[in-house]
Amino acid sequence: MAHKPRKEMIAETRTKLVDAARHAFGTVGYAEASMDDFTAAAGLTRGALYHHFGDKKGLLQAVIAEIDGEMAVRVREIAEKAPTRWQYFVDECTSYIELAVEPEIQRIMFRDGPAVLGDPSQWPNASACEASMTENLTHLQQEGVVVPDLDPATAARLINGASSQAAQKIANSDDPEATSRKAVAAFKTLLNGLLVNRA
Protein backbone atom coordinates (compact mmCIF):
# COMPACT_ATOMS: atom_id res chain seq x y z
CA MET A 1 0.00 0.00 0.00
CA ALA A 2 1.42 3.38 -1.01
CA HIS A 3 1.95 5.98 1.69
CA LYS A 4 0.03 9.26 1.46
CA PRO A 5 2.10 12.33 0.56
CA ARG A 6 3.30 14.25 3.63
CA LYS A 7 1.35 17.36 2.60
CA GLU A 8 -1.86 15.33 2.49
CA MET A 9 -1.17 13.76 5.91
CA ILE A 10 -0.55 17.21 7.45
CA ALA A 11 -3.80 18.53 5.99
CA GLU A 12 -5.71 15.51 7.34
CA THR A 13 -4.22 15.94 10.82
CA ARG A 14 -5.12 19.64 10.89
CA THR A 15 -8.65 18.89 9.67
CA LYS A 16 -9.18 16.21 12.34
CA LEU A 17 -8.01 18.55 15.10
CA VAL A 18 -10.10 21.50 13.86
CA ASP A 19 -13.21 19.29 13.50
CA ALA A 20 -12.81 17.82 17.01
CA ALA A 21 -12.12 21.24 18.54
CA ARG A 22 -15.03 22.84 16.72
CA HIS A 23 -17.39 20.22 18.08
CA ALA A 24 -16.04 20.69 21.62
CA PHE A 25 -16.02 24.50 21.49
CA GLY A 26 -19.52 24.51 20.00
CA THR A 27 -21.03 22.17 22.59
CA VAL A 28 -19.26 22.78 25.91
CA GLY A 29 -17.47 26.05 25.16
CA TYR A 30 -13.81 27.05 25.05
CA ALA A 31 -13.23 27.11 28.82
CA GLU A 32 -14.67 23.63 29.40
CA ALA A 33 -13.17 22.02 26.31
CA SER A 34 -10.27 19.74 27.23
CA MET A 35 -7.32 19.41 24.89
CA ASP A 36 -7.11 15.73 25.85
CA ASP A 37 -10.76 15.23 24.89
CA PHE A 38 -10.45 16.63 21.41
CA THR A 39 -7.07 15.11 20.67
CA ALA A 40 -8.55 11.74 21.71
CA ALA A 41 -11.64 12.41 19.56
CA ALA A 42 -9.33 13.10 16.62
CA GLY A 43 -7.23 10.00 17.41
CA LEU A 44 -4.13 12.19 17.84
CA THR A 45 -1.76 13.30 20.58
CA ARG A 46 -1.25 16.61 22.33
CA GLY A 47 2.05 16.77 20.48
CA ALA A 48 0.18 16.97 17.17
CA LEU A 49 -1.94 19.82 18.50
CA TYR A 50 1.11 21.76 19.73
CA HIS A 51 2.94 21.12 16.48
CA HIS A 52 0.13 22.38 14.24
CA PHE A 53 -1.51 25.08 16.35
CA GLY A 54 0.82 25.93 19.24
CA ASP A 55 -1.89 25.68 21.90
CA LYS A 56 -5.63 25.64 22.56
CA LYS A 57 -5.88 29.34 21.69
CA GLY A 58 -4.22 28.73 18.32
CA LEU A 59 -6.72 25.97 17.67
CA LEU A 60 -9.60 28.35 18.51
CA GLN A 61 -8.20 30.81 15.96
CA ALA A 62 -8.21 28.04 13.33
CA VAL A 63 -11.80 27.09 14.18
CA ILE A 64 -12.88 30.73 13.98
CA ALA A 65 -11.14 31.13 10.62
CA GLU A 66 -13.04 28.10 9.31
CA ILE A 67 -16.42 29.30 10.59
CA ASP A 68 -15.74 32.82 9.34
CA GLY A 69 -15.01 31.46 5.86
CA GLU A 70 -18.27 29.52 5.88
CA MET A 71 -20.18 32.59 7.07
CA ALA A 72 -18.64 34.68 4.28
CA VAL A 73 -19.87 32.17 1.67
CA ARG A 74 -23.39 32.12 3.15
CA VAL A 75 -23.55 35.91 3.35
CA ARG A 76 -22.38 36.26 -0.26
CA GLU A 77 -24.97 33.74 -1.47
CA ILE A 78 -27.73 35.79 0.17
CA ALA A 79 -26.38 39.14 -1.04
CA GLU A 80 -25.94 37.97 -4.64
CA LYS A 81 -29.73 37.69 -4.98
CA ALA A 82 -30.07 41.46 -4.45
CA PRO A 83 -31.32 43.52 -7.41
CA THR A 84 -29.02 46.52 -6.78
CA ARG A 85 -25.52 47.19 -5.46
CA TRP A 86 -27.01 49.07 -2.47
CA GLN A 87 -29.31 46.17 -1.58
CA TYR A 88 -26.35 43.80 -1.97
CA PHE A 89 -24.42 45.89 0.56
CA VAL A 90 -27.35 45.99 3.01
CA ASP A 91 -28.06 42.27 2.68
CA GLU A 92 -24.39 41.39 3.08
CA CYS A 93 -24.15 43.38 6.32
CA THR A 94 -27.46 42.32 7.85
CA SER A 95 -27.25 38.62 6.97
CA TYR A 96 -23.92 38.50 8.85
CA ILE A 97 -25.67 39.88 11.94
CA GLU A 98 -28.57 37.44 11.53
CA LEU A 99 -26.21 34.45 11.60
CA ALA A 100 -25.61 35.24 15.29
CA VAL A 101 -28.86 33.44 16.15
CA GLU A 102 -27.20 30.08 15.38
CA PRO A 103 -25.93 28.37 18.58
CA GLU A 104 -22.49 27.29 17.29
CA ILE A 105 -21.80 30.72 15.80
CA GLN A 106 -23.06 32.45 18.95
CA ARG A 107 -20.81 30.50 21.25
CA ILE A 108 -17.62 30.31 19.20
CA MET A 109 -17.61 33.51 17.12
CA PHE A 110 -19.39 36.01 19.33
CA ARG A 111 -18.92 34.85 22.93
CA ASP A 112 -15.79 32.76 23.34
CA GLY A 113 -13.90 34.35 20.42
CA PRO A 114 -13.90 37.91 21.81
CA ALA A 115 -13.40 36.66 25.40
CA VAL A 116 -10.28 34.67 24.44
CA LEU A 117 -8.86 36.49 21.41
CA GLY A 118 -9.90 40.06 22.22
CA ASP A 119 -11.42 42.75 20.03
CA PRO A 120 -12.78 41.21 16.79
CA SER A 121 -11.76 44.34 14.85
CA GLN A 122 -8.16 43.21 15.39
CA TRP A 123 -8.70 39.66 14.09
CA PRO A 124 -7.00 38.79 10.77
CA ASN A 125 -10.32 38.50 8.90
CA ALA A 126 -11.47 41.99 9.92
CA SER A 127 -9.18 43.82 7.50
CA ALA A 128 -10.45 41.81 4.52
CA CYS A 129 -14.04 42.50 5.54
CA GLU A 130 -13.37 46.23 5.88
CA ALA A 131 -11.56 46.30 2.54
CA SER A 132 -14.58 44.72 0.83
CA MET A 133 -16.95 47.20 2.50
CA THR A 134 -14.70 50.10 1.52
CA GLU A 135 -14.72 48.96 -2.10
CA ASN A 136 -18.52 48.61 -2.12
CA LEU A 137 -19.03 52.03 -0.52
CA THR A 138 -16.60 53.62 -3.00
CA HIS A 139 -18.60 52.22 -5.94
CA LEU A 140 -21.88 53.30 -4.35
CA GLN A 141 -20.46 56.79 -3.89
CA GLN A 142 -19.29 56.93 -7.51
CA GLU A 143 -22.78 55.90 -8.60
CA GLY A 144 -24.30 58.72 -6.54
CA VAL A 145 -26.13 56.34 -4.19
CA VAL A 146 -24.37 57.31 -0.95
CA VAL A 147 -23.48 60.81 0.21
CA PRO A 148 -20.46 62.36 -1.57
CA ASP A 149 -18.67 63.64 1.53
CA LEU A 150 -18.38 60.16 3.08
CA ASP A 151 -14.93 58.65 3.59
CA PRO A 152 -15.52 55.02 2.54
CA ALA A 153 -12.68 53.52 4.62
CA THR A 154 -13.80 55.26 7.82
CA ALA A 155 -17.44 54.36 7.21
CA ALA A 156 -16.47 50.73 6.55
CA ARG A 157 -14.63 50.59 9.88
CA LEU A 158 -17.63 52.00 11.72
CA ILE A 159 -20.11 49.71 9.96
CA ASN A 160 -17.94 46.67 10.62
CA GLY A 161 -17.77 47.60 14.30
CA ALA A 162 -21.52 48.13 14.48
CA SER A 163 -22.26 44.76 12.86
CA SER A 164 -19.83 43.01 15.23
CA GLN A 165 -21.40 44.67 18.27
CA ALA A 166 -24.90 43.80 17.04
CA ALA A 167 -23.91 40.16 16.55
CA GLN A 168 -22.36 40.00 20.03
CA LYS A 169 -25.50 41.55 21.54
CA ILE A 170 -27.62 38.87 19.85
CA ALA A 171 -25.27 36.06 20.92
CA ASN A 172 -25.38 37.16 24.56
CA SER A 173 -29.13 37.78 24.65
CA ASP A 174 -31.71 35.71 26.51
CA ASP A 175 -33.88 35.92 23.39
CA PRO A 176 -31.57 35.94 20.35
CA GLU A 177 -34.40 35.92 17.77
CA ALA A 178 -36.13 39.01 19.21
CA THR A 179 -32.80 40.77 19.75
CA SER A 180 -31.81 39.99 16.16
CA ARG A 181 -34.97 41.62 14.79
CA LYS A 182 -34.36 44.78 16.82
CA ALA A 183 -30.64 44.88 15.98
CA VAL A 184 -31.21 44.42 12.24
CA ALA A 185 -33.91 47.12 12.17
CA ALA A 186 -31.63 49.59 13.98
CA PHE A 187 -28.68 48.64 11.77
CA LYS A 188 -30.69 49.23 8.57
CA THR A 189 -31.73 52.64 9.88
CA LEU A 190 -28.05 53.50 10.39
CA LEU A 191 -27.15 52.33 6.87
CA ASN A 192 -30.01 54.35 5.35
CA GLY A 193 -28.37 57.46 6.80
CA LEU A 194 -25.63 57.02 4.16
CA LEU A 195 -28.02 57.39 1.23
CA VAL A 196 -28.29 60.51 -0.89
CA ASN A 197 -32.04 59.91 -1.21
CA ARG A 198 -32.93 58.37 2.13
CA ALA A 199 -35.59 55.68 2.12
Automatic annotation (TrEMBL):
One Pfam family cited in the UniProt record for this chain: TetR_N
HTH tetR-type domain ranges (all copies): 11-71
Keyword Iron: no
Sample GO molecular function, one term: transcription cis-regulatory region binding
Keyword annotations from UniProtKB, A to Z: DNA-binding
Gene3D superfamilies: Tetracycline Repressor, domain 2
DNA-binding region: 34-53
Protein name per the record: TetR/AcrR family transcriptional regulator
Organism: Mesorhizobium zhangyense
Organism classification: Bacteria, Pseudomonadati, Pseudomonadota, Alphaproteobacteria, Hyphomicrobiales
